[in-house]
Design a protein that fits this description.
Layout lengths: L26 E3 L9 E11 L6 E11 L3 E3 L1 H9 L8 H16 L3 E8 L8 E5 L22
Protein name: NADPH-dependent 7-cyano-7-deazaguanine reductase
Catalytic activity: 7-aminomethyl-7-carbaguanine + 2 NADP(+) = 7-cyano-7-carbaguanine + 2 NADPH + 3 H(+)
Keywords: Cytoplasm, NADP, Oxidoreductase, Queuosine biosynthesis
């Protein structure tokens, strides 16, 4: 038996956590430790709640990171992101909070998150956060999410 912790959620029927604080993120050993590469997760249908009105807010999140010793297991990330459906938070707090939690727990070489929020009240809000400058030599493609242009 290996001493490496096994992911808790893979192959299991797992309900969404009640809140982001209750969500558990699984990390597994980086299969290419020592290699500089980028991992991208896109969540084009992310949802949270407005802390003032309780109305749903929708965003397209893009999370890019250069792994260190571990990578985040994708099902646990999906459950973590889904736990925001009933969480009230301003766009800035939600976006930066997701990035900071991943950075603190996973300790990647580099991480950035882009939160492209759909407008409510006529104003789209885009929020960006990163741990610092990307490592030299890391290929960092554009996130590929067009700025909001309305229907025109």
């Amino acid at each position: 038996m290996s001493d490496t912790p096994q992911p808790q959620f893979l192959g299991q029927q797992t309900p969404l956590p009640a809140s982001p604080n209750e969500a558990v993120l699984d990390y597994v050993p980086n299969p290419r430790e020592g290699t500089l590469y980028l991992v991208r997760f896109a969540a084009p249908e992310f949802t949270s709640l407005c802390p003032v009105t309780g109305q749903p807010d929708f965003a397209h999140l893009v999370i890019d990171y250069a792994p260190g010793e571990t990578i985040v297991e994708s099902k646990s990330l999906k459950l973590f992101l889904g736990s925001f459906r009933n969480h009230a938070g301003f766009h800035e707090d939600v976006t930066v909070g997701i990035g900071q939690r991943l950075a603190q727990e996973m300790q990647p070489r580099w991480l950035r998150i882009g939160g492209y929020w759909y407008p409510r009240g006529g104003i789209p809000i885009d929020v960006f956060w990163q741990t610092g400058a990307p490592p030299e030599g890391l290929w960092v493609p554009e996130q590929g999410v067009a700025p909001y242009r309305g229907r025109g």
